[in-house]
Request: fold
Amino acid sequence: MGFFHRLRERSGWWLMLWLTWLVLSNSLAPGQLLLGGLISALITGWMPRFEQPPLRIRHFPRLLAYGGLLLWDILRANLTVARQVLGPVAALQPAFLDIPLSAQHPLVISLFASTITLTPGTVSCELSADGRSLRVHALHSPDPAADIHTLKTRYEDRLRAIFEPVAGETA
Reply:
């Protein structure tokens, strides 16, 4: 597929990039209009196709429940982290956790990593090159194996149950 074909096919992306350029430059001067349009065209025309395998929501009520669980865990973790940070620093046991992934779909892995990062006290750091494990930093992890098990069962397993891969893909 050629540059101009990709540009024509992705005209919505071009428009979004061009408008973003104009907003960020805070100018409608002819030079900004032209430069923004040109840079947007170059990015859009040369950008590789980033398509994810199709994925469907298998259980919408479970998705809503997951959102509620996540909000509850964020609230609880905020209180826990505040208590840990205000307490004796020597009591903290930070650790890197290498979580083996059962999920294979990029969107499910991304949602899992985002969930971990949204929950205070943990942050997703790195996905392994083969996509089979996720490195997470925990502010306090006296039992890393138990924490890995909790993250997998509380979040990853639920996400895998919510989403259904399409056309032979695996979640």
In short: The helical segments are 3-9, 11-25, 30-46, 60-86, 106-118, 144-162. The chain has two domains: 3-46, 55-165. The beta strands are 55-57, 95-100, 122-127, 133-138, 163-165.
